[in-house]
Amino acid sequence: MTQHSRDLSRRRLLFGGAAVGAATLLTACTSNETPAASTQTKAAGNSEGNNAPGKKVVIGFSAPAADHGWMGAIHANAKAQAAAYSDVEFKEVDGGSNSEAQRSTLGTLIAQKPDIIVVLPHDGKEVNAVALQAMQAGIPIVNLDRAFPDALASRLVIKGDNYGMGVSAGHYIGKMLKDKGVANPVIGEIAGLEIPLTVERSEGFKAALATYGFTVKNRRSAEFTSDSGQREASQLLQALPKIDAIWNHDDDQGIGVLAAIKQANRSEFFMVGGAGSKLAIDAIKADNTVLKATVTYNPSMASSAVSLARLIAQGRGLGDLTELQVPKEVTLASETITKENASSYDKLGF
């Protein structure tokens, strides 16, 4: 199956299963675990509390092009969550393939004066100025996933726990190696694009490994794509004739990583992935590759971003909180998927 086919199959799964995302964040916004789609749809149609219809609002949305399984899920989740509310008009603009294109389409969107905009930037630093422009024009920004460096550039930041992803991966690898009695393990790391969230992941990984007395022997930077994953994994395997464990930051990237491992006929190590794709979850359940676990970075955060954007635009807060306004920052927990619990995460796979 080609990468394109895999992405399409993931998107079909998303629309057929977990598309509506995390409407229940309105009552519990501390975890990235999302209930079944039927529960989510019912919640969005509930006539009580935060889900009760309110003032009609226009929510703008901008994210990079959906040329990656996780990013495709971000787009689909945001759109489906908006459709679950009768009081939301959803305006999505093309995020393009780079920050320059995204700045341009965001400028056009700002001129249309939506009530609020949800933005997942290509790069927070490069899109920061246009987010500030929106905020100064009285249009709140919900900053999704990749943070802007300026706190004034957003009303709300909602993201996965990148540092926590690294910590989860580090603890899984550290414990596994300790249990095997490996004293001086050779640990490889295949990171993603060198943007702030990737740095946070690596820092968390390093910190967790240090608690076991372990360090990363070789770190490679890929680009969150299958091709780049295969390229960097091939170089990592050539550099390290013996490996005990690898952490790959991204499961889409991991398709190429696993291809490189198979091509090199290497199997003396185990691997942990990142994000929680359906393909990764299935591979972990089948237990027929070196991939033994993945740490979640769930695209349901896009659903939550839309739900919270709606409340902000309507001047409402979260029903279970004493405070009258939606919090300034929401960080979703990173969980570890293994063979033992993989079936529980099937509906979350993108």
From TrEMBL:
The keyword Signal applies. Pfam families: Peripla_BP_4. Its main location: other. Keywords: Signal. It comes from the Bacteria. The keyword Transmembrane does not apply. One of its GO terms (molecular function) is carbohydrate binding. One of its GO terms (cellular component) is cell envelope. Residues 59-316 form the Periplasmic binding protein domain. It is found in: Cell envelope. Residues 1-28 form the signal peptide. Belongs to the bacterial solute-binding protein 2 family. PANTHER family: D-ALLOSE-BINDING PERIPLASMIC PROTEIN-RELATED. This is Periplasmic binding protein domain-containing protein.
